[in-house]
């Protein structure tokens, strides 16, 4: 398993688990990041924060700390 924050630009994966504080976990779920969702890392800022991912046919920007809470299985 890998963290979403460790994925390289152009990488694909499937969300396996979402960890973190209750507040952060709920926010990620509300944005559509749930187990079984396919994600694609589109862009990363020069220092790695924030990142832009595509999931469920829309683009989403996350902070590195939020992306660290998401475990994925890379394709």
Q: State the separation between the terminal residues, measured CA to CA.
A: 11 Å
Mean pLDDT: 92
Taking pLDDT < 50 over at least 5 consecutive residues as the criterion, the unreliable ranges are none
| Approximate helicity band | 10-25%
Strand content: 35-45%
Structural class: alpha+beta
Biggest sheet statistics: 6 strands, antiparallel
Please count the beta strands (DSSP E, at least 2 residues each).
6
| Rg on CA atoms, Å | 11 Å
What string gives the helices and strands in order?
A: EEHEEEHE
* General shape: globular
Query: Treating each run of at least 4 consecutive H or I residues as one helix, how many helices?
Result: 2
Q: Taking strands numbered 1, 2, ... along the chain, how are they ordered across the largest sheet? A: 1-6-2-3-4-5
Question: Can you describe what's shown?
Answer:
There is one protein chain. The model has no long low-confidence stretch (mean pLDDT 92). The protein is built from 2 helices and 6 strands. It has 75 residues and is α+β, with helices and mostly antiparallel strands. It has helices at residues 22-30, 64-67; strands at 2-3, 12-18, 38-44, 51-55, 58-62, 70-74. A hairpin with a 2-residue loop joins strand 4 (51-55) and strand 5 (58-62). The termini are close together. Helices cover 17% and strands 41% of the residues. The chain has a 6-stranded antiparallel beta sheet with strand order 1-6-2-3-4-5.
